[in-house]
Write a structure and sequence with these properties.
The protein is mainly alpha-helical and 576 residues long. The protein contains 22 helices and six strands. It has three domains: 341 residues, no CATH class; 55 residues, no CATH class; 69 residues, no CATH class. It is 61% helix and 6% strand. The longest helix has 32 residues. The chain is globular and about 75 Å long.
Length: 576
């Protein structure tokens, strides 16, 4: 008798997945058919985006039986009820605070650009945030035509996303605390339940009212929604760890892959959760060793690089190169190269998935399906060239064809920075070379219109970790405030490291970090840390009246120690 083949998804799951692809295709098609000027018609701003968002929701339903499977594995306990209820209570409290302190209009920097771009689905600065804009467009409809309320409702996206971040942060903390105090299979007693839930409450509330997170929770920026994706991805990984059957576990991994794909359409910060997830995976199946931990870290970094360069700009770049080849060399009409790429790429994925299914390899199916789910989430980026094709009022870089779209994704308009090795500000420029060719669409072929310039510096001015690299006089003046640089002398390695630790890590990271746990002097540029022992009396009027001034008296550090001590005591008691 033939052995039954194991599959991660059954036929109903694949039907839902296929339906999501059809709905997404319909939504993108509708967005391409608007005849209103700048694409500001109902089809492109209302019906099309709504269909696209529906298509992005359907893949979650292709994994819905996961929830039912897990419910069969474990009976619901009193702890589960309290954990769920308290999480939603914290969500409601955080949302109430954020709504009450929500920006009524716009804040500085990118907020105005994002609000305008979301309201009319325009093209902001590279590399864009199409999923954030689609959700913002949906929320802007709640203004019901009152343009003075559009900014408020786009800001509401951040408030809601931040509240959900707190919810999943609380549940992540309680999962970890339960593992420390009790175990995955043990139902906590009353004292253990109090410890676990108290840990979650302290951690969640500390983050709720932290300076940086609260700031981003009330304005139209991408960081709140990006934090939400980071929180839910990490929570999903912890839930994967507690799964009891291979199929349900693999479906959790597919959910994580899809969330990561969606997060690309918001901000790349979410990718930084991948190393943490890799270690969760490692510790589930292996005991600790330095070699294993190092290998896990390296694999996670390779995975980040694969998504950042292999998928995000890499796939469109391959499509662009094929487009140039088939039009310029073979003589096919415009768009033929992209169609051929899609046919080859789609055929390869289908063949790989069928091969893994025939072998009954759950891991192979999960790898291919995970790639598919990432791509479905990433497909939201098709909004960018579609909207740019209408030439809206905000259309940065005009990424309306495959070649300009790749440039947009690569952020080529920004200055390149030598992160690991390169010139210092004192390096002498000795030559310039033509780099990659820049193409534009002509009448019957793609024409070379320019070349990227690659500067060539004197090798004597090159340095490992060149922190002092910018040659603009205003930058050099700032360097001198942090490092003792002498005129006419090449900065030493020690001076580069001094700038790294004093300014980049100390002033621009450590100071921001301590704002959230110690206190902040003001919202004036380069404001310092408000330490508990500093005098709070007889302050300059500018500081005394500054609404951004706060002092936490390091209480967030203190509040963690009792919980850590009690948990440590609980673990010792368990061992005894």
């Amino acid at each position: 008798m033939e052995k039954e083949k194991r599959t991660v998804l059954n036929k109903s799951h694949y039907l839902v997945l296929g339906a999501s692809l059809l709905v997404l295709g319909l939504g993108f098609t509708l967005m391409s058919l608007d005849t209103a000027p700048y694409g500001f018609g109902t089809l492109d701003l209302t019906i099309g985006p709504a269909v696209v968002l529906l298509g992005l929701l359907l893949p979650f339903f292709s994994l819905f039986t996961l929830k039912r499977t897990l419910k069969k594995d474990t009976a619901r306990t009193r702890f589960d009820t309290l954990n769920t209820g308290l999480g939603w209570l914290l969500f409601g409290g955080a949302l109430t605070v954020y709504v009450c302190t929500l920006e009524p209009t716009t804040s500085f920097w990118d907020c105005g650009e994002f609000i305008s771009s979301a309201y009319k689905l325009q093209v902001p600065h590279p590399p864009g945030a199409p999923l954030f804009l689609l959700i913002g467009r949906l929320f802007s409809a709640l203004a019901f035509g009152d343009v003075t309320q559009v900014a408020y409702w786009v800001n509401m996206v951040s408030a809601l996303a931040s509240a959900f971040t707190i919810l999943f942060l609380f549940w992540s903390i309680t999962i970890l605390a339960k593992k420390l105090v009790a175990s995955d299979s043990t139902n906590p007693d009353q004292s253990q339940t109090i410890l676990i839930l108290a840990s979650g409450v302290i951690g969640a509330l500390s983050f709720t009212f932290s300076d940086s997170f609260w700031f981003s929770a009330v304005e139209a920026e991408v960081y709140a929604l990006s934090s939400f994706f980071t929180a839910i991805v990490f929570w999903a990984m912890l839930r994967w760890r507690s799964s009891t059957s291979p199929v349900s576990g693999y479906r959790w991994l597919l959910l994580i892959a899809y969330l990561i794909g969606l997060s690309i359409g918001v901000h790349l910060l979410n990718l930084l959760a991948i190393p943490a997830m890799a270690f969760i995976y490692y510790y589930r199946y292996h005991t600790f060793s330095y070699k294993g931990a190092l290998l896990t870290l390296l694999i996670s970094l390779v995975l980040i690089a694969f998504i950042m360069w292999g998928i995000i700009p890499g796939l469109p770049a391959v499509a662009g190169n094929l487009e140039i080849f088939f039009i310029n060399v073979i003589g096919l009409p415009f768009g033929a190269g992209i169609i051929i790429f899609l046919m080859i790429f789609t055929g390869t994925i289908i063949y790989s998935l069928r091969a893994a299914t025939r072998r009954g390899s759950l891991l192979g199916q999960t790898l291919v399906l995970g790639f598919i789910y990432v791509l479905i989430g990433y497909s939201v980026y098709l909004v960018v060239p579609i909207r740019s094709g209408y030439n809206p009022l905000i259309d940065e870089n005009n990424p309306e064809d495959i070649l300009s779209f790749v440039s947009y994704l690569r952020r080529e308009q920004y200055e390149q920075r030598p992160l690991l090795y390169g010139p210092q500000f004192s390096a002498e420029l000795i030559d310039q070379k033509n780099g990659a060719a820049k193409y534009a669409r002509g009448k019957i072929r793609y024409e070379i219109v320019d070349y990227s310039l690659e500067p060539v510096y004197d090798p004597k001015g090159l340095q490992v970790l060149p922190r002092l690299y910018h040659q603009a006089p205003e930058h050099i003046a700032e360097y001198k405030k942090w490092v003792n640089i002498r005129e006419g002398e090449k900065p030493t390695m020690g001076q580069n490291l001094a700038f790294l630790f004093r300014y980049q890590l100390g002033h621009m990271y450590g100071r921001y970090f301590l704002w959230n746990f110690v206190g902040r002097d003001s919202d004036v540029q380069h404001a310092g840390i408000n330490w508990p022992w500093e005098t709070q009396n007889k302050l300059p009027l500018e500081l005394a009246r500054n609404k951004a001034r706060n002092n936490y008296f390091c209480c967030r550090f203190y509040s963690a120690w009792p919980v850590v001590s009690i948990i440590s005591g609980g673990r010792k008691a368990m061992r005894r």
